[in-house]
Amino acid sequence: MDNLPENSILFADGSKGIHIPWNMASLNSNDRLQWHNFKPTDIDILLDGPDHPDYWEVWEDVLNEVTVTLENPNDVFNTYSLYQDGDLWLVPVTE
């Protein structure tokens, strides 16, 4: 994706490298952030870190299936898909 849509959010800087999946899995859902389609088994594998034999396969599945709902400062909830190009982005889902 060469041009990210307006209102995309940088979620994790690429400097985290191979630990971006682990970092994302370590964030818990809360009142302002809700993960959707993030399977508990996938979270466990990502939390095991990049030495887990299924780490990268699970990460690919997460990028393709997981969405996140965030509450913005105006108390409006928006849903985002994940996109990684080195950095990890939240890309607004259009309906």
Structural write-up:
This protein is of the alpha+beta class. The protein has one domain. It has a 5-stranded antiparallel beta sheet with strand order 1-5-4-3-2. Helix 2 packs across helix 3. The two termini are 18 Å apart. 15% of the residues are buried. The model has no long low-confidence stretch (mean pLDDT 89).
List the helices and strands and how they pair.
Layout: E1 9-12, H1 20-25, E2 33-36, H2 40-48, H3 55-65, E3 67-71, E4 77-84, E5 88-92
Antiparallel strand pairs: 1-5, 2-3, 3-4, 4-5
Describe the structure in brief.
27% of the residues lie in helices and 27% in strands. The chain has three helices and five strands; from the N terminus they run βαβααβββ. The longest helix is centred in the middle third of the chain and has 11 residues, at 55-65.
Lateral arrangement of strands in the main beta sheet = 1-5-4-3-2
Mean pLDDT: 89
Structural class: alpha+beta
Q: Poorly predicted ranges (pLDDT <50, ≥5 residues)? A: none
Q: What is the helix tally?
A: 3
Order of helices and strands: EHEHHEEE
Spatial extent as radius of gyration: 13 Å
The percent range for strand residues is 25-35%
Q: How many domains is the backbone divided into?
A: 1
Question: How many runs of DSSP E, i.e. beta strands?
Answer: 5
Task: State the distance separating the first and last CA atoms.
Answer: 18 Å
General shape: globular
Fraction of residues in H or I helices: 25-40%
The description of the largest β-sheet is: 5 strands, antiparallel
